[in-house]
Each structure stands twice: as C-alpha cells, then as structure tokens.
Write a structure and sequence with these properties.
By secondary structure, the chain is of the alpha/beta class. The chain is built from 18 helices and eight strands.
C-alpha cells in the first residue's frame, strides 16, 4: 500500500475510480431477487423461494455444479422483456460502481437449445443497451458465447447469427462452458467464420484445464483474449508467448475461488500473473451467483496482495488496453481515466 495512503483512503479511491470490465456474463450477473421474479412469471421452479435461500444454493461444489445451476437459471429467461430486464439491471449495477465501459458475454446457445429465438434475445439485450447508455451514460458491447457442451453444430449456428448482428452491439464470439471433454479444436469452423466477418474472438481456457487448453484456443480458434487463463503459469513457453504478444487474460479471482479453481484468495495466482508481466484484467465474471462486484474484486485484490495505488490504476487501465475499442477509442478512454485518477489522488492523498 502507498505509504501516504491509509486503508480508508484507498477503499474510497477504488470505489470512486472509473472502471471498465471485459469478463462479465449477463446471465451470471442476474441477482437472486430477479431470478425469483423471472421464475415466478414464467412458471419455472427454482430450488429456493427467497433471495437468501438462492444465495445458499449458489455455494458451488465444483465447476460442474456451477454450470448445472447456471443452465437451470437461464431457463427463467423467456421473452424480450426478460432479457431486457436482466441486462438493464446489470447496467444499473455497473453504473453504481462507476463502470463506464463493459464488454458483456451472452449465453445464447443455452437459450436457442430450448427454443428461444435469436431475435428475442437480441431485441431484449439491445433495448437495455440503448436504455443504459441513455440513463447511465455507460457504453457496452456484447460477445455471445458458445456453450461447449452443446456441440460444434450449435456453435456454428451461433457464429452465423453473430456474424450478422453488429446492429445489436455484437462485436465478437466467445466460447465457454466445461473445458474437460470439449477441446477448442472442435470449434474452429465457427471461429473461422467470425474471423472472416471481421469480428473478435475470445475463449475461456486455462480455468479448469492446463496450458494445452490455452494453446488450443490460440492456435485452433485464433483467440486474441483469454478468459481466465490462470493455469498458463504451468508452461513457461506459454507465459512468454502471452507476454510477447500482449494477449490479455480476463482474470476473475472470486469466480475461481467459488468454483474450486483456487482454494482461496491468498492462493490465487493474480500476483504471479502480474509479476510475470502479463496483460491482466480484473473482472467479476458472474457477480450475481458469486456475490461479488468489480469494485469488490479490486478491493479484495488490493487487500490480499497489498497492491499499490499505481498497481491498482494500471490494472484498471489494462481493461481499456485489452478492450476491443478502436485504437483512437482506447486513447480517448485512457486519457479520461488517467485524468480522473489524478483528480482522485489530489482529493484523497495527503500532501
């Protein structure tokens, strides 16, 4: 911690500083109270009757248990207004944390597989996107995610939709779900299609599996950003490749603890990733299910690893550096953030 900055001041700095987020799932951000509201109006039975009970249900045994409950909750999203409400409330939560820019994952394969139309999903989330910019001044974009367990054909279906969906604020394609048993190589065709369309490619990898999963995402999918990627440290050549090519890692510590990837915060490799010179971003992943926020991730990271104010602000700027904004857009946003950081320092750091 900065010698001139006590804990109270640095907490206030983190709460008030502008932020951007790159690894955030719309469905995983829905709060328990809203899941229950959606379940009630759509006739879905969840294994809880109150928000408190649902929070208890969201104590995951492992990653597979998380996927099971995530998939169940997704069935509560049925019509345009469901998707609009879930997305709008997410943007409201982000704005309350002073998040100015976010690239948000969607899980369309889980919805398409049960008969929800692509247009229903997109009409809802894009309406919320417009309302969020109007009401909160927050800028957002969407990255639909292939759920690996639903297979390459479903992935290709999503890719075809994504390639034609820029009008909805869609900027690329991702892939998530269980890594075990679903190697990235099986999804090359979907990602090739997205590359031909001039859109971005992101892959969850190196979360529950090791370096081979990340190498596969880089080589087979041409991913330019890696979701999680925390197990890259097991392969020195991979670390060097990520560092030299400035391939960003979307790191989500609370998520990793909740799904058993890391035992606890102190054993999380965030500090080692930073010390290795990697382009690391900090994210909340599924805040509604993990009872966290982006602000909380910064607070916990600072406290656990004794990050300096410079390290905190640099970590915040990494989200802009690794974003899919244009080069000019990145420069503009970074300049705004740096100006606000300097103003906050002047208000909070004693001379």
């Amino acid at each position: 911690m900065d010698p001139k900055l006590d804990r109270k001041a640095i907490v206030e700095f983190i709460r008030r500083m502008p932020k951007a987020e790159l690894h955030l799932h719309m469905e995983g951000a829905v709060q328990p109270r809203t899941w229950l509201k959606l379940a009630d109006r759509n006739g879905i039975r969840l294994p809880a009757d109150t928000p408190e009970e649902l929070n208890e249900v969201f104590r995951f045994r492992d990653f597979d248990h998380f996927i099971e409950l995530y998939t169940l909750c997704c069935t509560c999203l049925v019509n345009v207004d469901d998707f609009r409400l879930a997305t709008y409330e997410l943007l409201e939560d982000l704005a309350a944390q002073n998040v100015r820019y976010a690239e948000i994952f969607l899980s369309p394969t889980l919805h398409l597989a049960r008969g929800v139309k692509w247009e229903t999903i997109m009409a809802g989330v894009s309406a919320a996107r417009r309302e969020g910019e109007r009401d909160f001044g927050i800028q957002t974009a969407f990255i639909p995610d292939i759920s690996r367990e639903l297979g390459p054909e479903m992935g290709l279906t999503v890719a075809r939709h994504v390639a034609k969906s820029a009008e909805y604020g869609v900027i690329g394609l991702g892939i998530g779900g269980p890594e075990v048993g679903f190697p990235p190589d099986d999804y090359w065709e979907a990602f090739d299609l997205i590359g031909e369309a001039g859109m971005h490619r992101v892959a969850h990898a190196g979360e529950t599996l090791g370096p081979d999963s990340i190498w596969g995402a880089l080589k087979a999918l041409n991913a330019t950003r890696i979701g999680h990627g925390v197990r890259c440290l097991e392969d020195e050549a991979l670390v060097a490749h990520l560092r030299e090519n400035q391939i960003a890692l979307e790191v989500c510590p609370t998520s990793n603890v909740c799904t058993g990837v890391s035992k606890d915060w102190p054993s999380h490799p965030l500090k080692q990733l930073l010390e290795a010179g990697l382009l690391v971003t900090l994210n909340s992943d599924d805040p509604g299910m993990f009872t966290t926020t982006l602000t909380n991730e910064f607070l916990r990271a600072q406290e656990t690893f004794d990050l300096s104010l410079d390290e905190i602000t640099d970590l915040a700027l990494n989200a802009l550096r690794a974003s899919f904004l244009s080069t000019a857009g990145k420069r503009e946003w970074i300049a705004k953030f740096e100006a606000e950081f300097e103003k906050l320092r002047g208000e909070l750091v004693p001379v």
